[in-house]
Write a structure and sequence with these properties.
512 residues, 21% strand, 39% helix, 18 helices, alpha+beta, 26 strands
Length: 512
């Protein structure tokens, strides 16, 4: 017995066949058709699905003879973005990604109609434009023919299940990312839908993760090289899947995913009251495991580092990062960076700010600036997490995965700033592994999630904090905390003048 796992990220996808001992065959790729311009971020779901299918066929073929046949498939995906589809499984137009800003204006409408506190008490999230509701409101107003023709708007992991043959559905952890979901009832919220002017019948029925919701259609099974009946198991948001696939299955656990986005994802039981969570701006969504919840604290750290590499690293320098790390000083830099190179989403969404580097001198080296970027990203999270010990979010250690976790230097910086151990997972594919666990437990490949974690999760290295550097970083962080309030008036002024220059926002939306 083996399972097939599919993971759709923001910029790339991964596919693997897993046996009870781990991945047998893996493939990955980047999406070919994306639009990234000012305010606009679209992904062609139809072409992306074709790429994922081709990769799935490759790994199924490669696994043949190495393990038992695939008996189930499950999915992990980015949140927020939705795909408009018809009953006959046609994709109508490109999917608007979380960072697409054309629907930002609808945030105020939702706040005015229902109130910030009431929205939070229903949905468990502070109103922000990157959630799916704003994309759908934009489509309904600007592309009414698409809204009318779409039978369903499906989040990406659920879209995969639908395209393989399941009836339309929505998993709880992903449905929450639309801001149209009632976290208490576990279903779509009539109040939020009404406030947004959206129709309930445009969304699939809500199911929990790890449930059988259909079987792969015979034609698709043949296309993918699958034999026999293959169950479709509901997946979930990549953050919950990553938490599961990283072995974070108990309240109090924390996983750090370091990629294009860096995310800190604590696991906790449902709070008795969410008022204190609301005061701190902490999001709440269902874990992919029953009875648990997660929160997501995010920053665009990978985008910021890629910008620096592209602008200041020589071509051919091993993509630049290893060379830059070798130039970093051993000591804390003393430079301060405001890591708002993209609008920060937590602990509050701010689109009227930008990045800044403070403390530069003519003697400052490239390595110092690069290390200051790594330090600032960690300050960002350490500062935001500090007040959360009062609501039970105070991990004794951090588990880390993702591409950025391969950097020994960065994980050591994190351990030194937090003053707590960072454990690097042996695999950087936690979301993919989590999807495999969902399929594997449901179909009997594993007797339980505890067994799945024992079989599939391992650690590569533990980074212990240095007491001396930790003490120095605590002093530096006090200065870091003064950056935003000091620079915010200037940033807001720059933002306002930029809006005047650029005028109306782009209205393009690609047809699939």
């Amino acid at each position: 017995m083996s399972v097939l796992a599919l993971d759709a990220g923001t910029t790339n996808f991964k596919v693997a066949v897993f046996s009870a001992d781990g991945p047998v065959a893996k493939a990955s790729g980047c999406y070919p058709d994306q639009i990234r311009e000012r305010d606009v971020a679209e992904l062609n779901a139809a072409s992306a699905w074709n790429c994922v299918k081709a990769a799935a066929r490759r790994v199924v073929d490669e696994s043949r003879g190495l393990c038992d046949p695939v008996t189930a498939v499950s999915f992990s995906s980015m949140g927020e973005a939705m795909v408009p589809v018809t009953r006959d499984r046609r994709v109508l137009v490109s999917s608007l990604l979380a960072v697409d800003q054309r629907g930002d204006g609808y945030v105020r409408e939702l706040e005015d109609r229902l109130g910030v506190e009431d929205v939070y008490r229903i949905n468990g999230n502070v109103v922000a434009p990157f959630y799916g509701f704003s994309k759908l409101m934009w489509i309904k107003e600007n592309r009414p023919e698409v809204y009318a023709e779409a039978d369903r708007f499906l989040l990406w992991a659920d879209f995969f299940g639908f395209m393989l043959g399941a009836e339309p559905y929505a998993t709880t952890s992903l449905a929450n990312r639309t801001m149209l979901f009632d976290i208490t009832t576990g279903d779509w919220s009539d109040d939020l839908l009404a406030a947004c002017g959206l129709d309930r019948d445009k969304f699939g029925p809500v199911v929990r993760s790890g449930r059988k919701i259909g079987t792969v259609a015979p034609a698709l099974a043949r296309e993918l090289g699958l034999s026999g009946e293959v169950d479709i198991i509901s997946g979930g948001h990549d953050q919950g899947c990553n938490s599961l696939g990283s072995g974070r299955i108990h309240a109090g656990d924390m996983v750090v995913g370091i990629g294009t986005y860096e995310t800190y994802c604590p696991t906790f039981s449902r709070p008795a009251t969410i008022d204190e969570f609301m005061r701190l701006g902490v999001s709440i969504e269902h874990h992919v495991l029953d009875g648990l919840y997660v929160s997501i604290m995010a920053n665009h750290s990978g985008i910021m580092l890629e910008w620096f590499r592209r602008c200041f690293s020589d071509a051919g320098e091993e993509k630049g990062f290893p060379a830059l790390e070798r130039e970093m000083p051993d000591r804390p830099t003393g430079l301060l960076v405001l890591p708002h190179f993209e609008p920060p989403q937590w602990p509050e969404y701010m689109n009227d700010t930008s990045g800044a580097i403070v403390g530069l001198k003519s003697s400052t080296t490239r390595g110092e600036i690069f290390k200051a970027l790594l330090e600032s990203i960690t300050f960002y999270f350490a500062d935001g997490l500090a007040p959360m010990s009062g609501i039970g979010i105070a991990p004794a250690e951090f588990a880390a995965n993702g591409g950025g976790s391969k950097s020994d230097a960065w994980l050591q910086i994190k351990a030194d700033i937090f003053g707590k151990p960072f454990k690097r997972l042996a695999t950087s594919e936690g979301s993919l592994c989590g999807a495999a666990m969902l399929a594997g437990v449901q179909t009997g490949l594993f007797a339980s999630y505890e067994e799945a974690v024992e079989r599939l999760v391992d650690y590569d290295r533990v980074f212990e904090p240095d007491p001396g550097r930790h003490a120095r970083y605590l002093d530096i962080m006090e200065n870091y905390r003064m950056l935003l309030p000091s620079l915010r008036p200037v940033m807001s002024s720059l933002y306002a003048s930029g809006q005047d220059r650029h005028g109306a926002r782009c209205r393009k939306m690609a047809t699939a």
